[in-house]
Amino acid sequence: MRRQRPIILCIVGDSAAGKTTITSGLVKLLGPDRVTHVCTDDYHKYDRHERKELNITALHPDCNYLDILELHLERLHYGQPILKPVYDHATGSLVRPEYIRPAEFVIVEGLLGFTTATMRQFYDVKVYLNPPEDLRRVWKIKRDTSKRGYAREEVLAEMEKREPDSRDFIRPQRQYADIVVHFHLDKGVAPEDAGANLNAQLTLRPTIPHPDLSYLIDDKRTDSGIRLELGRADGKPADFLKIDGRVTPNHAAALEQAIFQHLPDVRPLGANEFGDYSDRTEIRHSDPLALTQLLLTYHLLRKYNDVRALPFAPPVAALSRLQSTPMPT
């Protein structure tokens, strides 16, 4: 009997870069029953109090059970269940672990998902979120003061403390991404004034096949909403898919419907059903965010269809046992 292995997407980015927001939209688009969500923050070795005593940040690899994460990724890759640890962000404590069986799609998101080559080999699509630091700072202040009980001064002090680890361990992971997502402001707009009209740029590296998106591009329109350009990223060739933050709702809806026509395994959703983000205690909608989530879903489904006809291989450990068993004479 054949069955398909799960397709695994990993989303990496610094704290408050938008990982959970992107993931939420993907879950809505694919369907909650088809997605298993794993946050690598759950693999912290120490709770918030212990980290303070040890003077270590959650961004440092030594503060996380990365070896256990590697083992769990292997099991998920081969469709096996895991007993996942759980970190409670609201209280900063480690709580009862959770038994998880992988669904058709597994979305792994967190700080250190690309840290080792062992981790990276189990992902089908690797995404890095790369907002400008001044914009991420605003997002983090809003999130941590409204949802995690911090004062603004505490958030700023923690970001300053974390900066060396961000520089040394988080941002270098960008080089391993197949897709880099960069939300950014128009020139002259202050980060504090950022709203739903952020521009989005997807850097599409040739490390994985990318779907043909030429049908979305209309060179005759001055307000085309989406542009595709050739260029170089980190010295290597790449495609740049640019989504204008000022795309009109009607045009965004037309682009979304055009993409949905290429996604037969997904039920088309209305514009108000995905593309949402939190702004303190309010939920707002962003068309560029919605298009970004939809395009990432496109990549997942493409990979899903690529492996659909492949036989489901046994785990590496099982292969090792088979290879070490002497043949009968």
Task: Explain this structure.
By secondary structure, the protein is an alpha/beta fold. The chain has a single domain (7-262, 281-309), classed as Rossmann fold (3-Layer(aba) Sandwich), CATH 3.40.50.300. It is 34% helix and 22% strand. It has nine helices and twelve strands. The chain has helices at 19-30, 48-54, 66-77, 117-120, 133-147, 152-170, 249-260, 287-307, 316-324; strands at 7-12, 35-39, 82-88, 93-100, 105-110, 125-129, 179-184, 199-204, 226-233, 236-243, 276-279, 282-285. It has an eight-stranded mixed β-sheet, with helices on one face. It has a two-stranded antiparallel ribbon with strand order 3-4. A hairpin with a 4-residue loop joins strand 3 (82-88) and strand 4. Helix 7 (249-260) runs parallel beside helix 8. The chain starts with 6 loop residues before the first strand and ends in a 5-residue tail after the last helix. The relative contact order is 0.16. The model is unreliable at 315-329 (pLDDT under 50).
User: CATH architecture, please?
Assistant: 3-Layer(aba) Sandwich
CATH topology: Rossmann fold
Roughly what is the average pLDDT, rounded to an integer?
Answer: 90
Report the principal-axis shape: globular
Return the CATH class: Alpha Beta
**What's the domain count?**
1
Instruction: Provide the gyration radius in Å.
Output: 21 Å
Instruction: Tell me which oligomeric state these chains represent.
Output: single chain
Order of helices and strands: EHEHHEEEHEHHEEEEHEEHH
The CATH homologous superfamily:
P-loop containing nucleotide triphosphate hydrolases
Q: Number of DSSP strands?
A: 12
Largest sheet: 8 strands, mixed
